[in-house]
Amino acid sequence: MIRGWMLPLLLAAAGALGAAGQFADGRTVAGAVVLLVLVGFAVVNSPLVFPASVGAEEARRRSAADGRPVIYWRPGCRYCRRLRFALGRDARRAHWVDIWRDPAAAAAVRAIADGNETVPTVVLPDGRARVNPEVDWVRERL
């Protein structure tokens, strides 16, 4: 849980420090811009932009029941973020599993990706999997 929030917290802290320096020099507009930009980056890199994560076992159970794919991801991953934003509202139709919160999920990804924790990894209900798939491929399966 804490690992997923490290980058956003560091970005927010850097924004606060940078803005404080600008404010101390009397440059309020520059300080506000620095703060807004870095807090914006913090939000985009946080677990908040992804649908609520479930555990690997729960995601597999739900996928078998409703036919939706399971997407393994981790906070701070630019490829996961790219997939998430490209899917838009359709992203909520998949089951998202944070591999940093669930060791079983990380093990599942390693089994698929030749021992690496490469994400995003998408697993379909029939067991077929793709590592870092194209957005259109994922959208077709949603």
Automatic annotation (TrEMBL):
Residues 70-124 form the Glutaredoxin domain. Keywords: Membrane, Signal, Transmembrane, Transmembrane helix. InterPro entries: Glutaredoxin, Thioredoxin-like_sf. PROSITE patterns: GLUTAREDOXIN_2. Residues 1-24 form the signal peptide. It comes from the Bacteria. The chain crosses the membrane at residues 31-52. The keyword tRNA-binding does not apply. This is Glutaredoxin.
